[in-house]
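If you are new to this repository, start here. Below is one unmodified record pulled from the training split, so you can see the exact layout before writing a loader.
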Amino acid sequence: MIRKEDVVRIGTFNKPHGVKGELSFTFTDDIFDRVNCDYFICLLDGIFVPFFLEEYRFRSETTALVKLERVDNAEQARKFTNVEVYFPKSLVDEDESEVIPTWNYFVGFQVNDIHAGFLGEIVAVDDSTMNVLFAIERDNGEEILLPAHEEFMVKIEKKKRILTVELPEGLL
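And here is the target side for that same chain:
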């Protein structure tokens, strides 16, 4: 049985693409392309279920078209619309690359400021403007927006999914 603590969320299946069972997949981490693993884990009715990949191809920096085994038409693919996609945490931990593919990679990271302490969890990335922002949800439910700048990043703990920052005084 696959448990929540054994997986990391990497994206969501969108709608079917075409008639042969392909799915549009929006991802926050392209770990599936960097690490040798031939399956995704989908959250279906509260249960984590593995599905083998037949093939995939990238459409942009954050989307891909995915073909799962035994999903052969649009009707079968429709059942995966808005399904969350996960990846085995044990394989994420093996990824030693220093490359951070996109700002969306940080969704799900806990953020600590060296002066202010724990800030919250990154729940979204706003890249609609020239200045990319992290949307951080605080423990009290409040959301704050922080600039996503490499110069503020002190430490990235990929395995623990913790981002330590040093924000300029007055930014919070």
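Two things worth knowing about this chain: The mean pLDDT is 90. The longest helix spans residues 89-94.
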